[in-house]
Amino acid sequence: MHIRQALSITVLTREDSPIVAGPKNERNNPKNEILVDALVFAISACTYSRKAHGVFQERTMPVVEATPSSGSTVPRRQLGRFLRRYREAAGKTIKDAYEHIECSQQKIWRLEKGDPNVVVKSTEVKLLCDFYGVPDDVKEALVSLSKETKVKGWWHAYGDVIPEWFELYVGLETAASRLRKYEPSLIPGLLQAHAYLEAVMTAERPRVPVEEFGRRIRVKQERQVLLTRGFPPPPQLDVIMAEAVIRAKIETPGAMQQQLWHLLRATDELPHLRLRVLPSVGPHSAAASGGFTILEFPPSDRGSSEPPTVYSENITGALYLDHPRELAVYEQVWAELEELALNERDSKAMITTLLKDLGDTSS
């Protein structure tokens, strides 16, 4: 079975987590934003890595305060979202917050918006966390994140120091208004059918206990609700995947047939989905980039919007890029992929033909 040995973008909920714990009817309440962030946030409390001459190097995180306009806006945005939602959950106003840490009202507003021109002080973040009643483990992560705001290209490394239920990418995905995904080796997680999803999870985590395996599966399936949510509207999802992805052989009987049928149904039922297949071609720029996702975000009430973010996953972590020069490179790669890929109609025809060749057109 030719399945990429890479960590999946999953989030483990913890029933004993101070963020997740609560009445079941409250956990499913879309208005209770603080519960959403139980699945949207990650930060290493002790290390970061960054891309240097094509090599990811692990370094000890310096204890420094960020300066205005420096570093990636990804950790700033996530820090701001989390602080705002904890403030609201605690019933505090912006006025309460700025009076408590003795700063300006404008600073609290800009901090919560992830403004790249505001100085983020870890001491102030700690004071706010204490004021909002943030649990100690979450507070530690947020204080560490405030120091990460200085990093130019933010690398989130997976490991024991990062709670997997504290995942960052899911928060960006949930907030996005458009997702553009290039996948050279797997069906994107948002479009995986059950049997295919199980096969991928088994390949990636072969020794995971049965109970934990089931929980991981449920969490990945919950992410797929993003495509059918009512409010806010689901994001536009543009997918380009290599022909090899739909021709992969899965050991589980019927898994690939079910997956192909699932893709065809999704293209029929989801008007915000554009699915295209990249036929086997010669060398192209995306061959060097590997899989990636470009996330775009809706404008705020004031008309401004967060900058797009490129997400690229690796077996040990994930890279988040949001600087204009980096984004321009990925935009060029995406433009080339669009030129090389089949159109939607021909892509659907290829999937249909392959499904018929496999001898099954039902779920």
UniProtKB/TrEMBL annotation:
- Residue stretches making up the HTH cro/C1-type domain: 83-138
Question: Which Gene Ontology MF annotations are present?
Answer: DNA binding
Q: Which Pfam families match?
A: DUF5753, HTH_31
Name residues in a coiled coil.
none
Name of this chain's protein: Transcriptional regulator with XRE-family HTH domain
Phylogenetic classification of the source organism = Bacteria, Bacillati, Actinomycetota, Actinomycetes, Micromonosporales
